[in-house]
Amino acid sequence: MSAVTITAAPAKALPGEGRIGLRANVRHIGALVRRNALQIKQDPESMFDAVLMPIVFTLLFVYVFGGAISGKGNQQAYVNYVVPGLMAMMGMNIAMAVGTGVNDDFKKGVMDRFRSMPIARSSVLIAKIVVEIGRMLVATAVLLGMGFLLGLQIHTSVLELAAAIGLSVVFGASLMWIFILLGLTMKTAQAVQGVAMLVLMPLQFGSSIFAPPTTMPGWLQSFTDYNPLSNLADAARNLINGGPVADSVWMTLGWAAVITAVTAPLAVAKFRKKT
């Protein structure tokens, strides 16, 4: 008796499959944002870093470094220097959590279920960024609250303070694409965190976030001049304290645009192909 070979006809694509319109894409992003927000509601401990980190860092740097940099008993002047800088630091630390979260979701199989759905691949990643922006705003609010308790003064206006917050959010969102790409590339969440810290530490401490670059060696001053965190810290500082902002703002927006334009397509492509 001869074997009969049955060849299955290739499945036909469903009408409209692969052609997701803008309205549907926005709807998918909204549903995924709600899903991620409900996860935070069910696990409030995931907000500890956004709530506690600004408090710890503000107290630590004001009372440990404030006297050394601004003079003993003159910590209040340092508050107006360091708090705007810490706004840049908050965005970077929150962004790092996105990479570890994406890596962990792949380990749990969550991302595989999303990729099997008829939704745009980018919507999964954009929804994560939207939720992390919310966490970033919470961290910034706590940071400013601590700053006001320690004597932070706004020498400009509420609108310029809002502009400083918005600038920090835009730059922080661009950094999230880097860490998403890192989370999709590295094998474990611990590896993502380890590599991220190797990048974060030189950028944070080799910037104008904590101390004026004039106190640094010449070679380090050159590094801070090209450090995007210095541009963001200087822009936020001048928006709050008064001073020229045009160059720092445009440099920060330029960095954010370049980072997003390069890493966002790479992250989406990696998400599609990751096994």
UniProtKB/TrEMBL annotation:
Claim: Ribosomal protein is one of the keywords in the record: no
PROSITE patterns per record: ABC_TM2
Key words, A-Z: Antibiotic resistance, Cell membrane, Membrane, Transmembrane, Transmembrane helix, Transport
Annotated signal sequence range: none
Family annotation (InterPro entries): ABC2_TM, ABC2_TM_bact-type, ABC_2_transport, Nod_factor_ABC_transporter
Main subcellular location: membrane
Domain of life per record: Bacteria
Protein's cellular compartments: Cell membrane; Membrane
Membrane topology: Multi-pass membrane protein
TM region positions: 50-69, 81-103, 124-149, 161-184, 191-211, 249-269
Domain ABC transmembrane type-2: 45-274
Pfam family, one: ABC2_membrane
Similarity comment: family membership: Belongs to the ABC-2 integral membrane protein family.
Name of the protein this chain belongs to: Transport permease protein
